[in-house]
Amino acid sequence: MIDFLADAPVPGSLDAVWHAGWPSPKHDPAPEIQVHAYTENTVILRQNKSVHYEAPFLFLLFGNERALLIDTGATADPGHFPLRATVDALIEDWLMRNPRARYGLTVAHTHGHGDHIAGDGQFTDRPETTIVGPGLDEVTVLFGLDDWPHHTAELDLGGRVLDLIPGPGHQAAALVFHDRHTGLLLTGDSLYPGRLYVEDRAAYAETVDRLVDFCATRPITHILGCHIEMTTKPDTDYPRGTTYQPDEPPLQLATTHLHALRRALAETAGQPGSHPRGSFVVVYRD
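Now predict its structure.
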């Protein structure tokens, strides 16, 4: 059994050059899914922009009893996006190193937008697998998130515990995952180096406040969202639909970006449209 509490948060590697598409998507030599081992028990995956311009990041976390796959990408067809085969191979490899008689998989989501749930159908017939639907009722019931969005919950993968933090504002059933083992805060589309689309201003501001308060009492190593849409030039993003982004910044952000986001929301309260703020752009959709 792996002791996921020892020396937590354990360090991981973000020494990765994320594949950001190809000048000609049809001739892209890279695989449909980029796989990077953050630790031996934590894997970051990115969908190739040549397959879908959203190029979401997905996360696979291993516990002693089950793994957790967070999000399933933007493409349903396994012929173009072989997520199930990739995840099964990663689990098989992990089980070779950590044999178990039985081992489960939970498929969950940072939120219910199409570019994060499209691959769910690849897992519907998979044994020992629980798929948490993206609807608010499914999320709150299966994760025990009573009195949404005011209380957090815990998800135990078998000695590896994650905090589940309600994160509405970008989308009604959005969740933020905090992995106590690595200290990673997985924020989905609520915070990442890109366009932060705000559907509900009040709910989003409360989410940011909730995350700032949460991070004040926990060791957070990195904030990892689900996209990169910025260039390395402050305030400058790639146009929506871009399939080749050769000048991307790193994926990881820090808790200081949460504070910057809270200031940005205060400064732009009541204003419409887009508001660049260095590493991200606040975009009000109302």
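The chain has a mean pLDDT of 97.
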